[in-house]
Design goal:
The structure holds 2 protein chains of 2 kinds. By secondary structure, chain A is mainly α. Helices cover about 70% and strands about 5% of the residues of chain A. A two-stranded antiparallel ribbon of chain A has the order 1-2. In chain A, strand 1 and strand 2 form a beta hairpin. In chain A, helix 8 crosses helix 10. Chain B has one domain: P-loop containing nucleotide triphosphate hydrolases (Rossmann fold, 3-Layer(aba) Sandwich), CATH 3.40.50. Chain B is about 40% helix and about 25% strand. Chain B is built from 11 helices and 10 strands. In chain B, the strands form 2 sheets. Chain B has a 6-stranded mixed β-sheet with strand order 6-7-8-3-9-10, with helices on both faces. Chain B has a 4-stranded antiparallel β-sheet with strand order 2-1-4-5, covered by helices on one side. In chain B, helix 3 runs parallel beside helix 5, helix 4 packs across helix 5 and helix 5 packs parallel to helix 6. Chain B is globular and about 65 Å long. The interface between A and B is large, with 31 and 40 residues.
Chain lengths: ~270, ~280
């Protein structure tokens, strides 16, 4: 229970790990756009090659990145099935009563599920190579310009920092409460969904009370350490772009350019 | 020499959840000098924690005044300077650590007051070295022991530049090893860095090592003086629910039964010598 790792950060020292978090967040967003630009087999081929390249540079085991697709596997399979069996098209490959498999439907299905798989893999590379703490810094820094329109960038980042700090502590506490209740004869395992939900009550009530007490204590402690919001605050670790970040940006834009060309290029000539 | 903490006629009244006016502190007059190691003891509800929170303007006087290096806590503009000069360490080690990495947490204070990046780095390194926690700089706080977490909290006040550290029962939730770590760290800071220490505790053994002991009872200062004088008043301490150290009690009982023992015995060693 003590060694809870948050998120799925895979520690390392690769080129990708060392990139500025802002670079990684922006590049991830841009590459997601790139995925939507691809519409032919060549485009998907290039994207797959790119993901394999990035994963091998990052030093993360490829299977681990592939596994990040798992939570959405059902949706991916459903997407594929729906397109295959219900897709409209001219070239019927196989027909059974009202269900027919068309070439267009098959293509569309593969395309859509490829898209989902690529999206999941690209975004999981971000969380694999960036620790939640650094990610928080990156998000704060990227959101800062939007403060003028009322985005509470610092407050959001502070909330995330405190959440990261206290989730392990609260997990330990939950564990302790469960043990204490079990010792007094509570049974958390049996019963249907409803009775199991009811059983959670004696865990949740003390957990919430203690969380509020902690929040109170923490607020006093933060005030005692001169905390007064984000105004005039400095940081020990200032984020800074380095040469590697420019390489990463150049690569990202090259990818977008390439895929945009594959999509619209031929029709220009 | 001017006192670091100067309390004059302090009274603190608050409204409790049933809307009653409760007087938590009354007629407090107290001066704490630079470089002093002061222990505050008292039974539960005697007002020690309330008093501590007046020392860095977390609470403000209802009557009277609290001055930190001459700055009145009632003056709004002084608050941030006061909180820099008087650092606070609280009882629960978990609930005062803000960041998920040790060195980030130590940096929290100086970041709040806008210290430059290089200077923060320097202060954090110094502070972690002083409390002997350098090797844990990149650890996650929840994996540390209670004593280590409290040392991180002490480092946090040092990084803020505090010359006076108020500790509100810092060892109440620690095991014996953690307790001795904290006390020896504070004694060292007091001797080597000349840091003023206000140490609230209910462990008499810890209070015995202070320069001066202040005994609180029902929101008032009941007595204060050198540990020797305070702890030999065994019966008075017992009346307000405090237990004198074993040796002091022993000497007191023996004297009552007619043994010829000198006054002012509070440690085991003193008792042993007197009995030979």
């Amino acid at each position: 229970m003590l060694n809870i790792t948050l998120g799925q950060y895979y520690p390392g020292n690769s080129f990708i790990h060392q990139l500025d978090p802002r670079t990684k967040i922006l590049a991830t967003l841009l590459l997601i756009v790139a995925v939507f630009l691809a519409d032919a087999a060549v485009g998907y081929g290039i994207l797959c090659a790119m993901v394999v390249l990035i994963v091998s540079v990052s030093g993360i085991p490829f299977m681990m990145v592939l596994k990040s697709v798992k939570p959405l596997l059902l949706i991916i399979v459903m997407t594929l099935m729906l397109h295959v069996f219900l897709g409209q098209g001219e070239h019927v490959l196989y027909q059974w009563k009202i269900f027919k498999v068309t070439e267009e439907g098959l293509q569309m299905g593969v395309k859509m599920s490829m898209r989902l798989i690529l999206l999941l893999m690209i975004s999981s590379i971000l969380t694999f190579t960036t620790s939640p703490i650094v990610l928080t810094d990156g998000i704060e820094s990227l959101l800062r310009p939007f403060r003028v329109i009322g985005v509470p960038a610092h407050e959001l980042a502070m909330m995330m920092t405190i959440a990261l700090r206290f989730i392990p502590t609260l997990m330990e506490e939950t564990d302790r409460i469960i043990k204490a209740q079990t010792a007094r004869g509570a049974d958390f395992s049996g019963g249907n969904l409803l009775s199991r939900a009811k059983n959670m009550l004696p865990i949740l009530v003390p957990l919430f009370i203690s969380a509020f007490r902690r929040a109170d204590d923490l607020a006093v402690a933060m005030e005692a350490r001169c905390y007064r919001g984000g105004e005039g605050r400095t940081r020990m670790h200032e984020l800074a772009y380095r040469s590697g970040d420019f390489v990463a940006f150049a690569f990202t834009f090259a990818m977008i350019g390439l895929l945009a060309f594959l999509r619209w290029g031929p029709s220009l000539f | 020499m001017d006192p670091v903490i100067d309390v004059q006629g302090l009274k603190h009244v608050y409204t409790d959840s049933d809307n009653n006016q409760v007087t938590a502190l009354e007629q407090i007059d107290l001066q704490i000098m630079p470089g002093e190691f002061v222990a505050i003891i008292g039974a539960n509800g005697s007002g020690k924690s309330t008093l501590a929170r007046h020392f860095n303007a977390l609470l403000l006087p209802t009557e009277g005044s609290v001055k930190i290096n001459g700055m009145d806590t009632l003056e709004e503009n002084n608050i941030w300077k006061i909180r820099q000069q008087v650092g606070m360490v609280f009882q629960n080690p978990d609930n005062q650590i803000v960041a998920a990495i040790v060195e980030e947490d130590v940096a929290f204070g100086p970041e709040n007051i806008g210290v430059s990046t290089d200077e923060i780095r320097r202060r954090v390194d110094d502070a972690l070295r002083i409390v002997d926690m350098e090797e844990y700089r990149t650890h996650a706080p929840h994996l540390l022991s209670g004593g280590q977490k409290q040392r991180i909290a002490i480092a946090g006040t040092l990084a803020l530049g505090s010359e006076c550290i108020v500790l509100d029962e810092p060892t109440a939730m620690l095991d014996p090893k953690g307790r001795s770590e904290i006390l020896s760290t504070m004694k060292r800071l007091n001797k080597e860095k000349n840091i003023t220490v206000v140490y609230i505790t209910h462990f008499m053994k810890e209070a015995m090592q202070a320069d001066r002991v202040i005994v609180m009872c029902r929101g008032r200062i009941m007595m204060q003086g050198a540990p020797k004088d305070i702890f030999s008043r065994v019966d008075e301490l017992e009346k307000i629910g405090l237990e004198a150290p074993m040796a002091a009690k022993f000497a007191y009982e023996l004297r009552k039964s007619g043994a010829k023992l000198p006054q002012g015995i509070i440690t085991n060693e003193e008792l042993a010598t007197a009995l030979q």
